[in-house]
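We were asked to recover a plausible sequence for a given structure. The inputs and outputs are reproduced exactly as logged, with field labels preserved.

PROBLEM: sequence recovery
POSITIONS: 191
GIVEN STRUCTURE:
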């Protein structure tokens, strides 16, 4: 999930590796998140709702949706969950651990929600994710999955909340470009 800790500042000349490592550092090795996935049409009318539980213990992530464990098989990390716009990759942010990354030269110094960001392309096999990283905090602000260089899905945080001593996006949106719907992910509880 998109997390934010204001405990350090990223240098303006940070490398793509340093930016990605700052995002990784914000994801705790042990965490439990409970919330809701809500598929909505263009008018905001709910089409389906699902409760989810995501747990991460020693860098191993488990996901349950509507009380049923959901462990994807290889090649399914980018597949929608229960007809929503959300994938395993969105909830686990697994693409932050890919080892092939570089700056997106065409999108240098863009802003997301008023925050100046560095834009990094993360790649593994045939998959590419474009990530906007806040230059000040090192937080992941937005991500897009690309196919043939064009965005097909977009993830962004819309609201932050403090859970204990950790700030985290507690409302996120995921949109499959051109689908006519989007999915809201809420975080209700974080331990």
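RECOVERED SEQUENCE:
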């Amino acid at each position: 999930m998109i997390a934010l800790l204001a405990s350090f500042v990223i240098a303006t000349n940070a490398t793509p590796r340093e930016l990605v490592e700052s995002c990784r550092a914000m994801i705790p090795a042990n965490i439990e998140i409970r919330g809701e996935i809500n598929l909505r049409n263009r008018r905001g009318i709910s089409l389906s709702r699902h409760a989810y539980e995501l747990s991460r213990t020693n860098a191993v992530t488990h996901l349950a949706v509507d009380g049923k464990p959901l462990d994807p098989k290889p090649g399914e990390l980018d597949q929608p969950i229960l007809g929503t716009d959300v994938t395993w990759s969105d909830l686990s942010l697994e693409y932050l651990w890919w080892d092939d990354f570089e700056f997106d030269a065409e999108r240098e110094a863009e802003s997301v929600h008023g925050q100046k960001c560095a834009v990094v392309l993360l790649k593994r096999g045939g998959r590419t994710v474009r990530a906007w990283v806040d230059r000040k905090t090192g937080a992941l602000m937005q991500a897009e999955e690309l196919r043939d260089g064009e965005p097909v899905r977009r993830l962004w945080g819309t609201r932050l909340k403090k859970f204990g001593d950790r700030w985290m996006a507690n409302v996120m949106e995921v949109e499959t470009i051109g689908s006519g719907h989007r999915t809201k992910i809420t975080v209700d509880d974080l331990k």
